Amino acid sequence: MLPLDPTWVRSRFPALSQEIDGRIPVFFDGPGGSQVPGSVIEAMSHYLVTSNANVHGAFTTSRRTDEWIVSARAAVADLLGCDPDEVVFGANMTTLTFAFSRAIGRELLPGDEILVTRLDHYANVSPWQALEEEAGAVVRVVDFHTEDCTLDMEDLKRQINAKTRVVAIGYASNAVGTVNDVAAVVRLAHAVGAWVFVDAVHYSAHGPIDVRALDCDFLACSAYKFYGPHVGILYGKRQHLTHLRPYKVRPAPEEVPSRWETGTLNHEGLAGLVVTIDYLAELGQHVLPSGSRREALVAAMEASRRYERELCVQLIAGLLKIPGLILYGITDPARFAWRTPTVAIRLGGKTPYAIAKELGDRGIFTWHGNFYALGLSEKLNVEVGGGFLRIGLLAYNTREEIEGLLHALQEIAAAE
Ligand SMILES: Cc1ncc(COP(=O)(O)O)c(C=O)c1O
Known about the structure:
The longest helix is centred in the last third of the chain and has 28 residues, at 293-320. The chain is built from 14 helices and 15 strands. It has helices spanning 6-11, 38-50, 60-80, 93-105, 126-135, 153-159, 182-191, 211-214, 238-243, 267-287, 293-320, 352-361, 374-379, 399-414, and strands spanning 26-27, 87-90, 113-117, 138-142, 144-145, 150-151, 164-170, 195-199, 218-222, 232-236, 325-328, 342-347, 364-365, 367-369, 388-392. The chain folds into 2 domains: 6-36 and 306-414, Aspartate Aminotransferase, domain 1 (Alpha-Beta Complex), CATH 3.90.1150; 42-277, 3-Layer(aba) Sandwich (Aspartate Aminotransferase, domain 2). By secondary structure, the chain is α/β, with parallel strands linked by helices. Bound molecules: pyridoxal-5'-phosphate. The site of pyridoxal-5'-phosphate has 13 residues, from helix 4.
């Protein structure tokens, strides 16, 4: 496999060469949302010119819309390694998760148990906690190790039991980057007959996903985190999508997967999603000319992972040299297979907001706060001081951008 060529990647994203306040901005805000290739922007506007209509009509623009939706399911199936009829679209991951947790709640008996984790984004916590009230479920929280922000698998093993019906787990933490051993969690859950609902929103930008190999029951992600438009995506095993009863309006389709798609979808977003996945496949063809779109997508995400890991080594080594800086999460490069290049820090007495503002004024865009990973920020005791500063790398970031960030942080630290 050839290494990823950042110049080729960057040339595809018009936002990366724009000037803001006289500077080319540096986007380290990827875990909040990535930039978008020009081809995706064009596809969305092309859809609105040539195909804009509702579905299942007896005229051309409606037929074109139906075709875009079919193409979008096929493209996502290649991205996740499933069949097109196992792909559900929605507004975003949070909305889809509430819809599915409620439908799963209909199956639960009072006293049935659900495991969530303290490491996760609350989009994979609150929808399950709502079932305590709605379905009489007992929600248990699996802890994490504060020293490296990895999931406490022993705690998970202690808490999982014959009453566990669902394990809701993140593929990777959007705050500190930890990648969980999802396959191991699925094995433990299936051994007691529980389903596994995976939040892959953060992970999906950083590595290939194979839902069949994971054997998870559900996996949700959001295209705006992996260079696409604002579209929520949910994979569900066909038998679950068929067996569970959605909350839906009566005349809407009964067949799988449309029965899960309430109301009118974001059609221009779905057109953009197809072209996002085509962009990733093209990247894959660059690094490993290969046969199918699925193979090209896996190659693209592997190449991104390798490239991002090199950047992450540089970033973390530089951060650890800054006096007064605290870094939360895995820091040993030998363990970087278990983290994404998303890094949470605190620096001296300044609030994360103040640092993000100083960086923002220099054209370097980072996030501050808890990023809805509230269990994590509470347990690490950073809620009071305004959470973390989060630096998130993607395949379009460069070594030079990281050097610039490190330099700026050194200056901010020295001015304390
Ligand atoms: C890990 C993780 N899960 C869930 C979400 C929520 O995703 P959405 O905005 O699609 O509802 C986010 C958004 O930042 C996230 O990072």
